[in-house]
Every structure is written in C-alpha cells, then in structure tokens.
Write a structure and sequence with these properties.
With 91 residues, the protein is α+β, with helices and mostly antiparallel strands. The chain has helices at residues 3-14, 19-23; strands at 27-31, 35-39, 41-47, 51-56, 59-73, 77-90.
Length: 91
C-alpha cells in the first residue's frame, strides 16, 4: 500500500469514517442470491443475462448467474437482480 492510501486508511480509522469513502473502495451488498448492489463502480464492462462485469477501483467485479438484469444504474451505483451463482473480484 502506498503512503497516500496508508494515510487515508489511518485517517478513516482515527475519525471512524467508512474506508470505502476515503479509499475509493467498492461497497458490495448481496441479498441472498437474488440481488446485488454495488457502490463506487466505474462502469459496466460486459453485460448479458449470464454475466455482468463491473469495473471498480483496483479491478473488476464479475457476477455470474441466470436471468440477470440491471435494474438501476447511476454514476456510482448499480443494482442487479437475477439468480446469482458466483461473485468474483478480479485484480
């Protein structure tokens, strides 16, 4: 971890702030195997009903399943529904 990220991480801990805000980390919320909500994304790389690849800081989130649809997408938030089989974070 470089000095800037280390400093931000220490700052987040000292002031009890969420690290994803200061470090630009993705925040992923998975509801069972039917919904996923991703904050701090950088765009959709690939989209089909079986796979959705989302660019995030430091890599990609790869969501695999069936009948997957993007229900909402905003500049920093994305909401996906479907039957989710696998979630990977690829660097």
């Amino acid at each position: 971890m470089n000095f800037k990220k280390s400093f931000r991480s220490s700052l987040a801990e000292a002031f009890e702030l969420p690290k994803e805000i200061l470090l630009d980390l993705p925040r992923v919320t998975l509801v069972g195997n039917v919904q996923i909500y991703v904050q701090n994304h950088r765009g959709v790389v690939e989209y089909s009903d079986k796979i959705i690849r989302v660019s995030v800081s430091g890599g990609e989130l790869i969501i695999k399943g069936e009948g997957m649809t993007i229900k909402n997408i905003y500049s920093e938030e994305i909401f996906v529904e479907g039957i989710i089989y696998n979630l990977d974070y690829a660097v």
